[in-house]
Amino acid sequence: MSLKHWWLALVCGVALALPAAAQVEPEPEQPPPAPAPPEAPAAEPEKAPAKKATSLEDPPLHRWGGWTISGAAWSPELLGADEEVAVVNDPEIPHPLMLGTGSHIRESWRVAYHLPKGIGSVVFGYDSMEDEERAENALPGVFVFVESRAFPAFRGAFDDDLADGVSSGARRKTREMRIEFAGRAFETKLARGTWSAGYRSVDHNRAVEIHYLGIVPNLPPVIPPQVPNPIDPAVFAPQPDIVREKSDFSGSGIGGGLDVEFILHPRVSVISGLSVGVLRGKVDTQYTSRASFYASTPGVPLTREELFDILENGTGDEVALVHQESVLHAIRTTSESLPAQTFDAYAGVQVSIFRGFKAFATLREAYYQNVALYVVPNASKGNDRTKHSAGYEGYQLGVSWRF
Amino acid sequence: MRRASLVLTLIAAAAAASSCDSTQPDRIEQKTASVFISALALAIDVDCFDVWEDTNNDFAPDLNTGRVQCFQSPQGQANQVPVPWRYSLVISVIREGNTTEELIATSLDPSDSIPDFGSLTPYDTAVNTGGSHDHQGTTYYLNGRQASTGSQLFVESLGIILGPPSVLGVSPTYDFTVNRGDTIIVRARKESVATMPGYLSVFPAETPPPRVQLEGRLLIGGQEVQPSGTVHGSGDDGASVYYSFTVK
């Protein structure tokens, strides 16, 4: 969701909640119930609608309290976690080649224990979101993909930073667990609000792997008469440059929220809520970039011109000396401190099906800020650090049962 | 009853919506790819004649020997023209969505009957009528034709039979079917001067060895395309051409 929509949801929630809160009026004292005539025939039709209304309300708490179990399914689309895997060297305007994100059906759980006498509730919540994507981009023989994620040394089929194919995959996973205390913030005829505050922990893992390919390098063919027998072209096919990068974050902290229910009808209500949290966590990162170069003397890279000259004009013995050598650049960091923030908002409709049993449909936005860190070595023997965030947006369908 | 009707309507609508699958399979579009290899070299203009004999010494040729003899043209120039040259060839394809090569055809398969250098580039076909040459004794030179040392007429006048031009045994192009998105890869190397008949050295146009340049062309659906790679080989001995093209 864009920032604009976040503010829209926030403003709408506040705009709807404030008038409702302002409408809090002291409940008029109920007159003592007049003893009904024992056999008044007119009393029966008046009792019937009253019974229907109360049959949809939550059951009263037991002496030991009560429980509410809520389960929902949603297909969150991961936002803000696209990975640039290369830059397309378009002669007009170079542009990044992105590995996008998809959506997969996930579950969301809430279990609330309601303390006796309406003191409040202890709420346990768990969310797990996972996204795994793969993409292949190939233009065999057309070297237009700049290996932007590889370490700038010997990258490219001919050490010129360029590849004619990119194969990439990424996995992003977020798990959030909350234990909160919730209490009634306000209640009117039209709306009721519930505040919550407590502990929350977030784990966010992301890993990306990119293979930069030289699918059709158009090398001079090593076939007769240059050599007595043809040599498998795969022997000289450029080894792919491989980049692997990952970040594992685990943090915990405090958060709070406000949920507001606007009662439109005894059976139907509009529900919305906003929750924010601040976390302090640790992040482990790893980056490896493996590239290769052609050589005929071990450790001495051949230029493209030298390589082509040997393959085109060299003798069989000279060709046989050509080989590829790998170069690895890597860095790993552990337990690096990283502050993060979480935002979670939803709005939708809730329908009471029968006493204590409800179904709901909401649009939910969850955003985890600064929950990933990429540490990449640079050519000046330093490191570049980039923080990343992850957002999830989707429609949630679920049911809750209060007992 | 009304609720049941509503449920049935919703189910029918959902079934209808799910049947509207917009992801139809891609239509496979097949095209014919044609590989053509030629060779260019500096060749000398020659005048070629049928050789006749005057067997009864009446100063009139009366016996066609069936031989052709060529002489360097008096006004002869050296021109860059097609010349016949044998070469080895490998054609392969990377199918769309794959990254590995699939061999289409090669002259380098030891199990087949095609010799390694079984393919031959086309001759210079420019042959014009004309030219004269004085008789020498009882040998007369008739039916004058102007050609180059790259012509079949000249090459065969030397007793060198290279055969008809071909690409892996077929002529004029080697054709095969490809699909859109496939990448065609062509690799060819010309035979070494040491093993090729030396017809270009009879009237050398330049300091030996002759510099023959292979030239590769590729046609898709009859239209010539511009592949990536090296389509114009160097004149070095045994040099190659190698190019690729992704069918659009």
Task: Explain what this protein looks like in three dimensions.
The complex is a heterodimer of chains A (403) and B (248). With 403 residues, chain A is mainly beta. Chain A has one domain: Lipocalin (Beta Barrel). Chain A contains four helices and 16 strands. In chain A, the strands form two sheets. A ten-stranded antiparallel beta barrel of chain A has the order 1-5-6-9-10-11-12-14-15-16. Chain A has a four-stranded antiparallel beta sheet with strand order 4-3-7-8, with no helix packed on it. The longest helix of chain A has 20 residues. The relative contact order of chain A is 0.17. The N terminus of chain A is likely disordered. By secondary structure, chain B is mainly beta. Chain B is 10% helix and 41% strand. Chain B is built from two helices and 14 strands. In chain B, strands 1, 2, 3, 7, 8, 9, 11 and 12 form an eight-stranded antiparallel beta sheet that branches. In chain B, strands 4, 5, 6, 10, 13 and 14 form a six-stranded antiparallel beta sheet that branches. In chain B, a hairpin with a 2-residue loop joins β11 and β12. Chain B is elongated, with a radius of gyration of 29 Å. In chain B, 36% of the residues are buried. The N terminus of chain B is likely disordered. The chains are: A mainly beta (403), B mainly beta (248).
